Amino acid sequence: MIFLVAAVLLLGVLVGAAAHLALPVIIPAATAIALWLLVFAIRERRREH
Length: 49
What we know:
Blueprint: H1 2-17, H2 23-48
Helix pairs in contact: 1-2
Organism: Streptomyces aureoversilis
Transmembrane segments: 26-42
Keywords: Membrane, Transmembrane, Transmembrane helix
């Protein structure tokens, strides 16, 4: 659960900084976080079964 909180906080920081960073920097960072959240969600869903 702490990983999910960290990912959401990091995404919030990146979205807040998006106005100051170039688009080629934001897209890979946002993609990496989205993949991390996807892997986390899949692992959590499997753990429940």
